[in-house]
Amino acid sequence: MIIHKTEAEIALMKDAAMLVSKTLTEVAKILKPGVTTLDIDKLCVDFVKEHNAIPSFYNYHGYPHNICASVNDVVVHGFPNSTALKNGDIISIDMGVILKGWHGDHAYTFIMGDVAPEILQLVKVTKESLYKGIEKAVINNRVGDISFAIQDHTERKYGYGVVRELVGHGLGRSLHEDPQVPNYGKRGTGHKMKENLVLAIEPMINLGGREVFTDVDGWTVRTQDGKPSVHFEHDVCVKRNQALILSDYSIIEAAEKANPYLNSSYY
Ligand code: MF3
Ligand code: CO
């Protein structure tokens, strides 16, 4: 069932999405070699609770942590752990919150220090593909237009692997609402969008092949070939001429630029 939001509900969802953006901004401030993803988990939970919200991933279908921390060949749903992050890692932090009954769910991939040019390009192109998808989130377009835009920019133009098993989704009072938003598909197909549909659009793009597998822990999704994968996610509201992005990378990027341990040279 597709649920459209009222303007008042969109305002509340903006607050939820922005709380995630602010949390990811705090993450951008503390990331450096030696920090662990469990440290990041703790920072995120504390920050979100201080802001009268609760982390939504904890116990979602039994998920045992508050954030997903997906490093290098981990595509998504990585468990925070006690391994020190190091120069050359790429780290996707995905966080969900419930604020006043509404979900925010978004993610950003950070680069720690020096990486190969091909990894820098993968991060750049994946972020670009998210915005290419968002451009299509306008009324009377179809979900397939978003999907095609992402696939076209990543797979056709760069030969990257577009993960098929995991998709974006509607967002609202539930973390996962209809419709599903695949990162691959055909233009002019799928659900025809109307105003105030809220979507979490989240390209998961592999440097190598698109094949993935799930670890024995039942959650951690990794690339089959062990090559890196990048994940960016925004919460967006379908509008007439231009989608309204509820989350905000500009504050995360400002903190990232100010952090000497993070590599933002691609933008
Ligand atoms: N952004 C992911 C999603 O929308 C995160 C879910 S992780 C889970 O599916 F732990 F909550 F499952
Ligand atoms: Co999501």
Pick out the low-confidence regions. none
The rounded distance between the terminal residues' Cα atoms is 38 Å
Cα gyration radius (Å): 17 Å
What general form does the structure show?
globular
Structural class: alpha+beta
Oligomer: single chain
Q: How would you characterize the overall build of this protein?
A:
It is a single chain. The chain has 267 residues and is of the alpha+beta class. It has a single domain, classed as Creatinase/methionine aminopeptidase superfamily (Creatine Amidinohydrolase). The protein has helices spanning 7-30, 37-50, 117-135, 143-158, 249-258; strands at residues 54-55, 67-71, 74-76, 90-99, 102-111, 161-162, 168-170, 177-181, 198-201, 204-206, 212-214, 221-223, 229-231, 234-237, 244-245. The longest helix has 24 residues, at 7-30. The radius of gyration is 17 Å and the shape is globular. The N and C termini lie far apart (38 Å). The relative contact order is 0.20. Cobalt (II) ion is lined by residues 105, 169, 200, 202, 233. Cobalt (II) ion binds next to loops.
